[in-house]
Amino acid sequence: MEPKFILTLDGHLRIGSVQMHKDLLLPNDTCMGGGFWEVDPISMKLLLSGKSYDL
């Protein structure tokens, strides 16, 4: 399981610990991209990086 995120055509951000980015999709979703996420414990910010390659 990896910390991954996706952005949908409807503007929703979905994050989770999944094997594949597509595991975050709901029926009728269109994925516009995604990548990896982590929490910076010092600044308490959610950091998004990388890009999806398994959709």
Query: How would you sum up the major sheet?
Result: 4 strands, antiparallel
Number of strands: 4
User: So what's the overall shape?
Assistant: globular
* Strand/helix succession: EEEE
> SS-based structural class?
mainly beta
How much strand?
Answer: over 45%
Ends distance: 16 Å
Walk me through this protein's architecture:
The chain has strands at 2-8, 13-18, 31-40, 45-49. Strands 2-1-3-4 form a 4-stranded antiparallel sheet, with no helix packed on it. It is built from no helices and 4 strands. The relative contact order is 0.31. It is mostly beta strands and 55 residues long. The protein is globular. A hairpin with a 4-residue loop joins strand 1 and strand 2 (13-18). It starts with a strand and ends in a 6-residue tail after the last strand.
Summarize the structure.
With 55 residues, this protein is mainly β. The protein is 0% helix and 51% strand. The two termini are 16 Å apart.
Please write out the topology.
Elements: E1 2-8, E2 13-18, E3 31-40, E4 45-49
Antiparallel strand pairs: 1-2, 1-3, 3-4
Looking at this protein, list some descriptive labels.
4-stranded antiparallel sheet; 4 strands; mainly beta
